[in-house]
Fold these 2 entries.
Entry 1:
Amino acid sequence: MKLNEHYKNLQESYLFSTVAHKVNAYAAAHPSAKILRLGIGDVTLPLAPAVVAAMAAAVEEMGRKETFRGYGPEQGYPFLRESIRQYYARRGVTLAADEIFISDGAKSDLGNILDLFAAENAVLVPDPVYPVYVDTNVMAGRRILFADAAESNGFLPMPDEKVQADIVYICSPNNPTGAAYSREQLAAWVNYARRRGAVILYDAAYECFVREEGLARSIYEVEGAEECAVEFCSFSKTAGFTGTRCGYTVVPHALAGGALNKMWLRRQTTKFNGVPYIVQRGAAAVFTEEGEKQIAENLAVYRRNAARLCRCLDGLGIWYTGGKNSPYVWLRCPGFDDSWKFFDYLLEEANVVGTPGCGFGKNGQGYFRLTAFGGEDTTAEAAERLTRLLSRG
Ligand code: PLP
Protein backbone atom coordinates (compact mmCIF):
# COMPACT_ATOMS: atom_id res chain seq x y z
CA MET A 1 0.00 0.00 0.00
CA LYS A 2 1.32 3.44 -0.91
CA LEU A 3 -0.12 6.58 0.63
CA ASN A 4 -1.12 9.60 -1.42
CA GLU A 5 2.14 11.50 -0.95
CA HIS A 6 0.51 14.75 -2.06
CA TYR A 7 -1.08 15.03 1.38
CA LYS A 8 2.41 15.76 2.72
CA ASN A 9 2.39 18.96 0.70
CA LEU A 10 -0.65 20.33 2.51
CA GLN A 11 0.12 23.24 4.77
CA GLU A 12 -1.41 22.86 8.20
CA SER A 13 -4.24 25.31 8.61
CA TYR A 14 -3.77 26.91 11.98
CA LEU A 15 -6.03 29.88 11.27
CA PHE A 16 -9.22 29.09 13.16
CA SER A 17 -7.55 26.86 15.73
CA THR A 18 -5.07 29.63 16.56
CA VAL A 19 -7.92 32.16 16.77
CA ALA A 20 -9.80 29.84 19.15
CA HIS A 21 -6.67 29.16 21.20
CA LYS A 22 -5.86 32.86 21.60
CA VAL A 23 -9.45 33.77 22.46
CA ASN A 24 -9.76 30.94 25.01
CA ALA A 25 -6.46 31.86 26.65
CA TYR A 26 -7.51 35.51 26.90
CA ALA A 27 -10.94 34.57 28.28
CA ALA A 28 -9.35 32.30 30.90
CA ALA A 29 -7.02 35.08 32.04
CA HIS A 30 -9.78 37.72 31.98
CA PRO A 31 -12.97 35.96 33.11
CA SER A 32 -14.99 39.16 33.37
CA ALA A 33 -14.16 40.34 29.82
CA LYS A 34 -17.12 40.43 27.42
CA ILE A 35 -15.57 39.16 24.21
CA LEU A 36 -17.39 40.01 20.97
CA ARG A 37 -16.82 37.46 18.19
CA LEU A 38 -16.87 38.65 14.58
CA GLY A 39 -14.49 35.98 13.39
CA ILE A 40 -16.02 32.80 12.04
CA GLY A 41 -18.11 32.93 8.86
CA ASP A 42 -21.03 31.01 10.34
CA VAL A 43 -24.57 32.33 10.51
CA THR A 44 -26.28 33.06 13.83
CA LEU A 45 -29.98 33.41 12.93
CA PRO A 46 -32.13 30.26 13.03
CA LEU A 47 -33.85 28.58 10.09
CA ALA A 48 -36.89 30.41 8.73
CA PRO A 49 -40.26 29.15 10.11
CA ALA A 50 -41.36 28.13 6.58
CA VAL A 51 -38.27 25.90 6.29
CA VAL A 52 -38.86 24.36 9.72
CA ALA A 53 -42.53 23.69 8.90
CA ALA A 54 -41.62 22.03 5.59
CA MET A 55 -39.05 19.82 7.29
CA ALA A 56 -41.50 18.90 10.08
CA ALA A 57 -44.11 17.92 7.48
CA ALA A 58 -41.46 15.83 5.70
CA VAL A 59 -40.59 14.07 8.97
CA GLU A 60 -44.28 13.16 9.32
CA GLU A 61 -44.28 11.79 5.77
CA MET A 62 -41.25 9.66 6.54
CA GLY A 63 -43.06 8.20 9.54
CA ARG A 64 -46.07 6.95 7.58
CA LYS A 65 -46.02 3.79 5.49
CA GLU A 66 -47.88 5.43 2.57
CA THR A 67 -45.54 8.40 2.28
CA PHE A 68 -42.25 6.93 3.48
CA ARG A 69 -39.31 7.36 1.07
CA GLY A 70 -36.12 5.36 0.84
CA TYR A 71 -33.23 6.19 -1.49
CA GLY A 72 -33.98 9.27 -3.56
CA PRO A 73 -32.48 10.36 -6.87
CA GLU A 74 -28.76 10.99 -6.27
CA GLN A 75 -28.90 14.25 -8.21
CA GLY A 76 -31.81 15.60 -6.13
CA TYR A 77 -35.60 15.47 -6.13
CA PRO A 78 -37.28 17.04 -9.16
CA PHE A 79 -39.30 19.45 -6.93
CA LEU A 80 -36.10 21.12 -5.65
CA ARG A 81 -34.28 21.13 -8.99
CA GLU A 82 -37.32 22.78 -10.54
CA SER A 83 -37.51 25.42 -7.78
CA ILE A 84 -33.86 26.27 -8.39
CA ARG A 85 -34.39 26.38 -12.16
CA GLN A 86 -37.15 28.93 -11.60
CA TYR A 87 -34.98 30.91 -9.16
CA TYR A 88 -32.42 31.35 -11.96
CA ALA A 89 -35.16 32.04 -14.54
CA ARG A 90 -36.46 34.93 -12.41
CA ARG A 91 -32.98 36.44 -12.72
CA GLY A 92 -32.95 35.97 -16.50
CA VAL A 93 -30.80 32.81 -16.57
CA THR A 94 -32.20 29.85 -18.49
CA LEU A 95 -31.14 26.44 -17.21
CA ALA A 96 -32.52 22.94 -17.70
CA ALA A 97 -33.47 21.13 -14.49
CA ASP A 98 -31.03 18.33 -15.34
CA GLU A 99 -28.17 20.81 -15.33
CA ILE A 100 -28.80 21.35 -11.58
CA PHE A 101 -27.42 18.82 -9.08
CA ILE A 102 -28.41 18.94 -5.40
CA SER A 103 -25.63 18.32 -2.89
CA ASP A 104 -24.94 18.46 0.83
CA GLY A 105 -23.22 21.82 0.37
CA ALA A 106 -20.80 23.72 -1.82
CA LYS A 107 -17.68 22.54 -0.01
CA SER A 108 -18.19 18.86 -0.94
CA ASP A 109 -18.88 19.62 -4.58
CA LEU A 110 -15.95 22.03 -4.88
CA GLY A 111 -13.72 19.17 -3.81
CA ASN A 112 -15.53 16.37 -5.65
CA ILE A 113 -15.69 18.12 -9.04
CA LEU A 114 -11.92 17.64 -9.31
CA ASP A 115 -12.55 13.92 -10.00
CA LEU A 116 -13.55 15.06 -13.48
CA PHE A 117 -10.30 16.77 -14.42
CA ALA A 118 -6.91 15.30 -15.23
CA ALA A 119 -4.09 15.80 -12.72
CA GLU A 120 -1.90 17.62 -15.26
CA ASN A 121 -4.24 20.61 -15.52
CA ALA A 122 -2.81 23.86 -14.15
CA VAL A 123 -5.10 25.57 -11.68
CA LEU A 124 -5.46 29.32 -11.14
CA VAL A 125 -6.59 30.40 -7.67
CA PRO A 126 -7.08 33.96 -6.46
CA ASP A 127 -5.03 35.03 -3.46
CA PRO A 128 -6.50 35.65 -0.90
CA VAL A 129 -9.43 33.24 -1.02
CA TYR A 130 -11.38 30.43 0.68
CA PRO A 131 -8.57 27.88 1.36
CA VAL A 132 -10.51 24.82 0.10
CA TYR A 133 -9.59 25.49 -3.56
CA VAL A 134 -5.88 25.25 -2.85
CA ASP A 135 -6.01 22.28 -0.49
CA THR A 136 -8.22 20.10 -2.72
CA ASN A 137 -5.80 20.61 -5.60
CA VAL A 138 -2.72 20.01 -3.46
CA MET A 139 -4.31 16.67 -2.47
CA ALA A 140 -4.54 15.77 -6.16
CA GLY A 141 -1.00 16.95 -6.91
CA ARG A 142 -2.02 19.68 -9.35
CA ARG A 143 0.15 22.65 -10.23
CA ILE A 144 -1.32 25.78 -8.66
CA LEU A 145 -0.87 29.30 -9.99
CA PHE A 146 -2.09 32.34 -8.10
CA ALA A 147 -3.97 35.40 -9.33
CA ASP A 148 -2.87 38.25 -7.10
CA ALA A 149 -5.60 40.32 -5.50
CA ALA A 150 -4.56 43.61 -3.96
CA GLU A 151 -5.83 47.10 -3.20
CA SER A 152 -4.64 48.15 -6.67
CA ASN A 153 -7.20 45.86 -8.37
CA GLY A 154 -9.87 46.23 -5.69
CA PHE A 155 -9.07 42.65 -4.65
CA LEU A 156 -10.57 41.52 -7.97
CA PRO A 157 -7.79 40.06 -10.14
CA MET A 158 -8.39 40.11 -13.89
CA PRO A 159 -7.16 37.57 -16.46
CA ASP A 160 -3.59 37.74 -17.70
CA GLU A 161 -3.17 36.19 -21.15
CA LYS A 162 0.39 35.16 -20.27
CA VAL A 163 -0.92 32.84 -17.54
CA GLN A 164 -1.70 29.39 -18.90
CA ALA A 165 -4.40 28.01 -16.64
CA ASP A 166 -6.79 25.15 -17.40
CA ILE A 167 -9.00 25.39 -14.32
CA VAL A 168 -9.85 28.86 -12.99
CA TYR A 169 -11.47 29.48 -9.61
CA ILE A 170 -13.60 32.56 -9.13
CA CYS A 171 -15.32 33.35 -5.84
CA SER A 172 -17.72 36.29 -6.06
CA PRO A 173 -18.61 37.85 -3.69
CA ASN A 174 -15.27 36.74 -2.37
CA ASN A 175 -14.53 35.15 0.94
CA PRO A 176 -12.63 36.79 2.67
CA THR A 177 -12.49 40.15 0.82
CA GLY A 178 -16.19 40.68 0.11
CA ALA A 179 -15.23 42.05 -3.32
CA ALA A 180 -17.71 41.16 -6.09
CA TYR A 181 -17.17 41.12 -9.86
CA SER A 182 -19.26 43.11 -12.31
CA ARG A 183 -20.75 41.36 -15.35
CA GLU A 184 -18.19 43.14 -17.56
CA GLN A 185 -15.30 41.88 -15.45
CA LEU A 186 -16.66 38.34 -15.51
CA ALA A 187 -17.06 38.60 -19.29
CA ALA A 188 -13.27 39.08 -19.49
CA TRP A 189 -12.79 35.85 -17.52
CA VAL A 190 -15.29 34.01 -19.72
CA ASN A 191 -13.41 35.20 -22.82
CA TYR A 192 -10.12 34.08 -21.31
CA ALA A 193 -11.52 30.62 -20.50
CA ARG A 194 -13.14 30.16 -23.90
CA ARG A 195 -10.00 31.21 -25.76
CA ARG A 196 -7.92 28.76 -23.75
CA GLY A 197 -10.46 25.94 -23.53
CA ALA A 198 -10.27 26.30 -19.75
CA VAL A 199 -13.05 25.70 -17.25
CA ILE A 200 -14.16 28.26 -14.64
CA LEU A 201 -15.25 26.91 -11.27
CA TYR A 202 -17.48 29.74 -10.05
CA ASP A 203 -18.31 29.82 -6.34
CA ALA A 204 -21.52 31.79 -5.81
CA ALA A 205 -22.02 30.84 -2.15
CA TYR A 206 -22.62 34.51 -1.24
CA GLU A 207 -24.67 35.54 -4.31
CA CYS A 208 -27.72 36.48 -2.24
CA PHE A 209 -25.79 39.40 -0.75
CA VAL A 210 -25.23 41.10 -4.13
CA ARG A 211 -27.42 44.16 -4.46
CA GLU A 212 -25.61 46.68 -6.65
CA GLU A 213 -26.66 47.04 -10.27
CA GLY A 214 -24.10 45.72 -12.70
CA LEU A 215 -22.67 43.14 -10.32
CA ALA A 216 -23.26 39.49 -11.17
CA ARG A 217 -25.07 36.98 -8.98
CA SER A 218 -24.43 34.12 -11.38
CA ILE A 219 -21.71 33.67 -13.97
CA TYR A 220 -24.43 32.60 -16.41
CA GLU A 221 -25.51 36.25 -16.59
CA VAL A 222 -22.52 36.51 -18.93
CA GLU A 223 -23.03 35.35 -22.49
CA GLY A 224 -21.13 32.19 -23.34
CA ALA A 225 -20.47 31.24 -19.70
CA GLU A 226 -22.51 28.05 -20.12
CA GLU A 227 -19.75 26.85 -22.46
CA CYS A 228 -16.97 27.24 -19.91
CA ALA A 229 -18.28 27.46 -16.33
CA VAL A 230 -19.56 25.27 -13.52
CA GLU A 231 -21.37 27.17 -10.76
CA PHE A 232 -21.51 26.17 -7.09
CA CYS A 233 -24.08 27.54 -4.72
CA SER A 234 -25.38 26.82 -1.27
CA PHE A 235 -28.27 27.36 1.13
CA SER A 236 -25.73 27.83 3.94
CA LYS A 237 -25.44 31.60 3.88
CA THR A 238 -28.71 32.35 2.07
CA ALA A 239 -30.97 30.44 4.40
CA GLY A 240 -28.89 29.47 7.43
CA PHE A 241 -28.26 25.87 6.30
CA THR A 242 -24.65 25.67 7.58
CA GLY A 243 -25.69 22.91 9.98
CA THR A 244 -28.58 21.52 7.93
CA ARG A 245 -26.46 20.99 4.79
CA CYS A 246 -27.78 21.59 1.29
CA GLY A 247 -26.32 23.17 -1.83
CA TYR A 248 -26.36 22.79 -5.59
CA THR A 249 -24.03 22.74 -8.54
CA VAL A 250 -24.85 23.72 -12.10
CA VAL A 251 -23.09 21.75 -14.84
CA PRO A 252 -24.39 22.99 -18.21
CA HIS A 253 -24.87 20.67 -21.17
CA ALA A 254 -22.94 23.14 -23.33
CA LEU A 255 -19.73 22.47 -21.37
CA ALA A 256 -17.20 20.23 -23.10
CA GLY A 257 -19.80 19.12 -25.65
CA GLY A 258 -22.04 17.70 -22.91
CA ALA A 259 -19.29 15.47 -21.51
CA LEU A 260 -18.97 17.22 -18.16
CA ASN A 261 -22.68 17.02 -17.30
CA LYS A 262 -22.68 13.29 -18.10
CA MET A 263 -19.48 12.69 -16.14
CA TRP A 264 -20.79 14.57 -13.10
CA LEU A 265 -24.03 12.59 -13.18
CA ARG A 266 -22.00 9.39 -13.41
CA ARG A 267 -19.74 10.49 -10.58
CA GLN A 268 -22.62 11.48 -8.29
CA THR A 269 -24.68 8.36 -8.96
CA THR A 270 -21.60 6.26 -8.20
CA LYS A 271 -20.19 8.03 -5.15
CA PHE A 272 -23.15 9.90 -3.59
CA ASN A 273 -26.57 8.80 -2.42
CA GLY A 274 -28.33 12.13 -2.31
CA VAL A 275 -29.37 14.72 0.27
CA PRO A 276 -32.04 13.65 2.81
CA TYR A 277 -35.62 14.13 1.60
CA ILE A 278 -36.40 16.11 4.76
CA VAL A 279 -33.59 18.58 4.05
CA GLN A 280 -34.56 18.96 0.39
CA ARG A 281 -38.15 19.77 1.45
CA GLY A 282 -36.73 22.43 3.77
CA ALA A 283 -34.58 23.83 0.96
CA ALA A 284 -37.55 23.97 -1.41
CA ALA A 285 -39.44 26.05 1.18
CA VAL A 286 -36.76 28.73 0.76
CA PHE A 287 -38.31 29.52 -2.63
CA THR A 288 -41.94 29.78 -1.46
CA GLU A 289 -43.44 33.24 -1.06
CA GLU A 290 -43.43 32.91 2.72
CA GLY A 291 -39.92 31.42 2.80
CA GLU A 292 -38.50 34.16 0.59
CA LYS A 293 -40.01 36.85 2.79
CA GLN A 294 -38.65 35.33 6.00
CA ILE A 295 -35.22 34.80 4.52
CA ALA A 296 -35.13 38.37 3.24
CA GLU A 297 -35.73 39.52 6.84
CA ASN A 298 -32.76 37.47 8.06
CA LEU A 299 -30.52 38.74 5.27
CA ALA A 300 -31.58 42.30 6.13
CA VAL A 301 -30.18 41.81 9.64
CA TYR A 302 -26.80 40.71 8.25
CA ARG A 303 -26.83 43.60 5.77
CA ARG A 304 -27.51 46.09 8.56
CA ASN A 305 -24.60 44.59 10.49
CA ALA A 306 -22.34 44.97 7.44
CA ALA A 307 -23.47 48.57 6.94
CA ARG A 308 -22.80 49.26 10.63
CA LEU A 309 -19.22 47.97 10.28
CA CYS A 310 -18.71 49.96 7.05
CA ARG A 311 -19.91 53.19 8.74
CA CYS A 312 -17.46 52.55 11.55
CA LEU A 313 -14.53 52.15 9.12
CA ASP A 314 -15.67 55.13 7.03
CA GLY A 315 -15.65 57.22 10.21
CA LEU A 316 -12.15 56.04 11.05
CA GLY A 317 -10.88 56.57 7.49
CA ILE A 318 -9.77 52.94 7.21
CA TRP A 319 -9.50 51.37 3.74
CA TYR A 320 -11.77 48.36 3.18
CA THR A 321 -13.61 46.29 0.58
CA GLY A 322 -16.83 44.32 0.93
CA GLY A 323 -19.75 45.01 3.21
CA LYS A 324 -22.09 46.35 0.53
CA ASN A 325 -22.57 43.15 -1.46
CA SER A 326 -21.17 40.72 1.02
CA PRO A 327 -21.38 39.65 4.66
CA TYR A 328 -17.62 40.20 4.93
CA VAL A 329 -15.76 43.44 5.51
CA TRP A 330 -12.07 43.32 4.62
CA LEU A 331 -9.95 46.09 6.05
CA ARG A 332 -6.37 47.21 5.97
CA CYS A 333 -4.99 46.83 9.50
CA PRO A 334 -4.50 50.43 10.65
CA GLY A 335 -0.96 50.93 11.94
CA PHE A 336 -0.05 47.25 11.65
CA ASP A 337 1.76 45.34 8.87
CA ASP A 338 1.02 42.03 10.50
CA SER A 339 -2.56 40.69 10.65
CA TRP A 340 -1.88 38.63 13.79
CA LYS A 341 -0.48 41.63 15.67
CA PHE A 342 -3.64 43.56 14.83
CA PHE A 343 -5.71 40.54 15.94
CA ASP A 344 -3.95 40.55 19.33
CA TYR A 345 -4.37 44.32 19.65
CA LEU A 346 -8.13 44.15 19.03
CA LEU A 347 -8.56 41.17 21.32
CA GLU A 348 -6.60 42.71 24.16
CA GLU A 349 -7.65 46.34 23.88
CA ALA A 350 -11.27 46.03 22.69
CA ASN A 351 -12.12 42.38 23.34
CA VAL A 352 -13.21 42.11 19.69
CA VAL A 353 -12.36 39.02 17.62
CA GLY A 354 -11.90 39.03 13.85
CA THR A 355 -9.95 36.87 11.40
CA PRO A 356 -6.37 37.67 10.34
CA GLY A 357 -6.23 38.11 6.56
CA CYS A 358 -2.92 36.26 6.23
CA GLY A 359 -4.81 33.01 6.88
CA PHE A 360 -6.36 33.29 3.41
CA GLY A 361 -3.18 33.68 1.37
CA LYS A 362 0.01 35.72 1.28
CA ASN A 363 -1.76 38.79 -0.11
CA GLY A 364 -3.96 38.84 2.98
CA GLN A 365 -1.02 39.86 5.18
CA GLY A 366 -1.75 43.25 6.73
CA TYR A 367 -5.53 42.83 6.25
CA PHE A 368 -8.33 41.64 8.46
CA ARG A 369 -11.81 40.12 8.01
CA LEU A 370 -14.85 41.02 10.06
CA THR A 371 -18.11 39.17 9.52
CA ALA A 372 -21.63 40.55 9.55
CA PHE A 373 -23.06 37.19 10.63
CA GLY A 374 -22.96 38.09 14.33
CA GLY A 375 -25.92 39.34 16.36
CA GLU A 376 -27.09 42.94 15.87
CA ASP A 377 -26.25 44.01 19.41
CA THR A 378 -22.85 42.31 19.27
CA THR A 379 -22.01 44.01 15.97
CA ALA A 380 -23.15 47.43 17.14
CA GLU A 381 -21.14 47.15 20.34
CA ALA A 382 -18.09 45.87 18.43
CA ALA A 383 -18.32 48.85 16.06
CA GLU A 384 -18.46 51.23 19.01
CA ARG A 385 -15.45 49.62 20.63
CA LEU A 386 -13.49 49.74 17.36
CA THR A 387 -14.32 53.41 16.94
CA ARG A 388 -13.20 54.17 20.48
CA LEU A 389 -9.97 52.18 20.21
CA LEU A 390 -8.86 53.08 16.70
CA SER A 391 -9.67 56.79 16.81
CA ARG A 392 -7.21 57.05 19.71
CA GLY A 393 -4.15 56.11 17.71
N1 PLP B 1 -17.63 28.60 -0.64
C1 PLP B 1 -17.23 29.64 0.10
C2 PLP B 1 -16.59 30.79 -0.58
C3 PLP B 1 -17.40 29.64 1.49
O1 PLP B 1 -16.98 30.68 2.20
C4 PLP B 1 -18.01 28.52 2.10
C5 PLP B 1 -18.21 28.46 3.56
O2 PLP B 1 -17.82 29.27 4.34
C6 PLP B 1 -18.40 27.46 1.29
C7 PLP B 1 -18.20 27.53 -0.07
C8 PLP B 1 -18.98 26.22 1.90
O3 PLP B 1 -20.34 26.23 1.85
P1 PLP B 1 -21.20 24.99 2.31
O4 PLP B 1 -21.64 25.25 3.71
O5 PLP B 1 -22.33 24.98 1.33
O6 PLP B 1 -20.37 23.74 2.20
Note: The chain has a mean pLDDT of 97.
Entry 2:
Amino acid sequence: MKKRVAVLISGRGSNLQALLDAEQDAYEITLVVANVPGVEGLDRARAAGVEALTLDHKPYGKNREAFERDLDALLVQRNIELIALAGFMRVLTPFFVNAWKGRLVNIHPSLLPKYPGVNTHARVLEAGESEHGCSVHLVVEEVDSGEILGQAKMPIRAGDTPDGLAERILLLEHELYPRCLAELARLP
Ligand code: GRF
Protein backbone atom coordinates (compact mmCIF):
# COMPACT_ATOMS: atom_id res chain seq x y z
CA MET A 1 0.00 0.00 0.00
CA LYS A 2 1.29 3.43 -0.93
CA LYS A 3 1.67 5.84 1.96
CA ARG A 4 -0.58 8.88 1.81
CA VAL A 5 1.61 11.98 1.83
CA ALA A 6 0.78 15.64 2.43
CA VAL A 7 3.23 18.27 1.22
CA LEU A 8 3.32 21.60 3.04
CA ILE A 9 4.53 24.61 1.06
CA SER A 10 4.84 28.38 1.24
CA GLY A 11 5.96 29.31 -2.26
CA ARG A 12 6.98 28.21 -5.72
CA GLY A 13 6.93 24.47 -4.95
CA SER A 14 9.70 23.18 -7.19
CA ASN A 15 10.44 20.41 -4.68
CA LEU A 16 6.73 19.61 -4.59
CA GLN A 17 6.90 19.30 -8.38
CA ALA A 18 9.83 16.89 -8.13
CA LEU A 19 7.91 14.78 -5.59
CA LEU A 20 4.89 14.76 -7.90
CA ASP A 21 6.94 13.91 -10.99
CA ALA A 22 8.90 11.07 -9.40
CA GLU A 23 7.58 7.59 -9.80
CA GLN A 24 5.27 7.44 -6.82
CA ASP A 25 5.45 3.74 -6.21
CA ALA A 26 5.93 3.89 -2.44
CA TYR A 27 4.02 7.06 -1.69
CA GLU A 28 1.13 9.01 -3.13
CA ILE A 29 0.74 12.75 -2.65
CA THR A 30 -2.90 13.18 -1.78
CA LEU A 31 -2.88 16.68 -0.29
CA VAL A 32 -0.93 19.94 -0.61
CA VAL A 33 -1.39 22.70 1.96
CA ALA A 34 0.02 26.21 1.66
CA ASN A 35 0.12 28.71 4.51
CA VAL A 36 0.28 31.56 1.98
CA PRO A 37 -2.65 32.23 -0.37
CA GLY A 38 -2.11 32.09 -4.13
CA VAL A 39 1.38 30.60 -4.27
CA GLU A 40 2.65 28.82 -7.38
CA GLY A 41 2.90 25.46 -5.64
CA LEU A 42 -0.89 25.34 -5.28
CA ASP A 43 -1.25 25.54 -9.07
CA ARG A 44 1.29 22.76 -9.48
CA ALA A 45 -0.76 20.54 -7.15
CA ARG A 46 -4.03 21.26 -8.95
CA ALA A 47 -2.40 20.66 -12.33
CA ALA A 48 -1.41 17.23 -11.03
CA GLY A 49 -4.97 16.58 -9.86
CA VAL A 50 -4.04 16.75 -6.17
CA GLU A 51 -6.23 18.46 -3.59
CA ALA A 52 -4.69 21.85 -2.80
CA LEU A 53 -5.75 23.86 0.22
CA THR A 54 -4.72 27.15 1.78
CA LEU A 55 -4.57 27.55 5.52
CA ASP A 56 -3.45 31.14 5.98
CA HIS A 57 -1.45 31.52 9.18
CA LYS A 58 -2.11 35.27 9.41
CA PRO A 59 -5.54 35.21 11.11
CA TYR A 60 -3.98 33.15 13.93
CA GLY A 61 -1.58 35.98 14.82
CA LYS A 62 0.98 34.82 17.35
CA ASN A 63 -0.96 31.68 18.23
CA ARG A 64 1.17 29.19 16.30
CA GLU A 65 -0.33 26.23 18.05
CA ALA A 66 -3.91 27.17 17.10
CA PHE A 67 -2.82 27.27 13.45
CA GLU A 68 -1.15 23.89 13.83
CA ARG A 69 -4.17 22.32 15.54
CA ASP A 70 -6.32 23.23 12.54
CA LEU A 71 -3.61 22.00 10.17
CA ASP A 72 -3.33 18.76 12.14
CA ALA A 73 -7.11 18.28 11.95
CA LEU A 74 -7.03 18.67 8.15
CA LEU A 75 -4.27 16.09 7.86
CA VAL A 76 -5.95 13.61 10.18
CA GLN A 77 -9.30 13.99 8.39
CA ARG A 78 -7.62 12.97 5.15
CA ASN A 79 -5.80 9.98 6.64
CA ILE A 80 -2.37 11.43 5.92
CA GLU A 81 0.47 9.10 6.94
CA LEU A 82 3.58 11.15 6.11
CA ILE A 83 4.23 14.88 5.80
CA ALA A 84 6.91 16.41 3.58
CA LEU A 85 7.83 20.04 4.21
CA ALA A 86 8.94 21.61 0.94
CA GLY A 87 9.83 25.25 1.33
CA PHE A 88 7.37 25.56 4.23
CA MET A 89 8.45 28.75 5.96
CA ARG A 90 6.94 28.23 9.41
CA VAL A 91 8.80 26.96 12.43
CA LEU A 92 6.65 24.24 13.96
CA THR A 93 5.89 24.01 17.69
CA PRO A 94 6.52 20.93 19.86
CA PHE A 95 2.80 20.13 19.62
CA PHE A 96 2.92 19.50 15.88
CA VAL A 97 6.41 18.02 15.76
CA ASN A 98 5.61 15.49 18.46
CA ALA A 99 2.21 14.62 16.98
CA TRP A 100 3.98 13.64 13.72
CA LYS A 101 7.24 12.34 15.13
CA GLY A 102 9.06 10.07 12.67
CA ARG A 103 6.50 10.89 9.97
CA LEU A 104 7.53 14.49 9.27
CA VAL A 105 10.45 15.28 6.94
CA ASN A 106 12.09 18.41 5.60
CA ILE A 107 14.64 19.31 2.96
CA HIS A 108 17.31 21.82 3.87
CA PRO A 109 19.85 23.44 1.55
CA SER A 110 23.06 22.60 3.42
CA LEU A 111 25.08 19.62 4.54
CA LEU A 112 23.57 19.40 8.01
CA PRO A 113 24.61 19.59 10.80
CA LYS A 114 26.48 22.43 9.12
CA TYR A 115 24.54 25.60 8.37
CA PRO A 116 21.11 25.14 9.88
CA GLY A 117 18.80 28.14 9.47
CA VAL A 118 18.60 30.69 6.66
CA ASN A 119 21.02 32.12 4.06
CA THR A 120 22.97 28.90 3.85
CA HIS A 121 24.57 29.61 0.44
CA ALA A 122 26.06 32.97 1.44
CA ARG A 123 27.32 31.53 4.74
CA VAL A 124 28.95 28.58 3.00
CA LEU A 125 30.79 30.94 0.63
CA GLU A 126 31.86 33.24 3.45
CA ALA A 127 33.29 30.30 5.34
CA GLY A 128 35.35 29.26 2.29
CA GLU A 129 33.92 25.75 2.16
CA SER A 130 34.99 23.51 -0.70
CA GLU A 131 31.71 21.60 -0.87
CA HIS A 132 28.05 22.24 -0.29
CA GLY A 133 24.84 20.25 -0.58
CA CYS A 134 21.40 19.48 0.76
CA SER A 135 19.92 17.23 3.41
CA VAL A 136 16.62 15.47 3.97
CA HIS A 137 15.98 15.01 7.67
CA LEU A 138 13.30 14.08 10.17
CA VAL A 139 11.86 17.13 11.89
CA VAL A 140 12.39 17.47 15.63
CA GLU A 141 11.79 20.35 18.03
CA GLU A 142 15.15 21.95 17.38
CA VAL A 143 15.21 23.50 13.90
CA ASP A 144 17.12 21.57 11.18
CA SER A 145 18.54 19.00 13.58
CA GLY A 146 16.63 15.71 13.31
CA GLU A 147 18.01 12.43 12.00
CA ILE A 148 19.49 12.84 8.52
CA LEU A 149 17.85 10.50 5.99
CA GLY A 150 19.99 11.44 3.01
CA GLN A 151 22.37 14.03 1.58
CA ALA A 152 23.65 15.09 -1.83
CA LYS A 153 26.95 16.95 -2.25
CA MET A 154 28.61 19.09 -4.87
CA PRO A 155 31.93 20.95 -5.10
CA ILE A 156 32.03 24.73 -4.81
CA ARG A 157 33.66 26.37 -7.83
CA ALA A 158 35.70 29.56 -8.06
CA GLY A 159 33.39 32.50 -8.67
CA ASP A 160 30.29 30.78 -7.28
CA THR A 161 27.60 33.17 -6.00
CA PRO A 162 24.80 32.49 -3.51
CA ASP A 163 22.23 32.54 -6.32
CA GLY A 164 24.29 30.24 -8.51
CA LEU A 165 24.73 27.80 -5.63
CA ALA A 166 21.00 27.91 -4.87
CA GLU A 167 20.23 27.02 -8.48
CA ARG A 168 22.68 24.09 -8.60
CA ILE A 169 21.64 22.76 -5.21
CA LEU A 170 18.00 22.86 -6.21
CA LEU A 171 18.73 20.30 -8.92
CA LEU A 172 20.26 18.02 -6.29
CA GLU A 173 17.27 18.60 -4.01
CA HIS A 174 14.88 17.51 -6.73
CA GLU A 175 16.70 14.20 -7.08
CA LEU A 176 17.33 13.60 -3.37
CA TYR A 177 13.90 14.39 -1.92
CA PRO A 178 11.79 11.85 -3.83
CA ARG A 179 14.38 9.15 -3.14
CA CYS A 180 14.45 9.79 0.62
CA LEU A 181 10.67 10.13 0.87
CA ALA A 182 10.21 6.82 -0.96
CA GLU A 183 12.68 5.12 1.41
CA LEU A 184 10.81 6.43 4.42
CA ALA A 185 7.48 5.42 2.90
CA ARG A 186 8.74 1.85 2.42
CA LEU A 187 9.35 1.43 6.16
CA PRO A 188 6.56 -0.42 7.93
C1 GRF B 1 14.44 24.86 -1.15
O1 GRF B 1 15.71 25.40 -1.37
C2 GRF B 1 14.44 24.06 0.11
O2 GRF B 1 15.65 23.44 0.39
C3 GRF B 1 14.16 25.08 1.16
O3 GRF B 1 13.27 25.99 0.56
C4 GRF B 1 13.41 25.94 -0.85
C5 GRF B 1 12.06 25.64 -1.41
O4 GRF B 1 12.00 25.74 -2.81
N1 GRF B 1 13.68 24.45 2.36
P1 GRF B 1 10.71 25.21 -3.59
O5 GRF B 1 9.50 25.98 -3.05
O6 GRF B 1 10.61 23.75 -3.36
O7 GRF B 1 10.96 25.56 -5.03
Note: The pocket of 5-O-phosphono-beta-D-ribofuranosylamine is lined by residues 11-15, 86-87, 107-109, 170, 173 (CB under 6 Å).
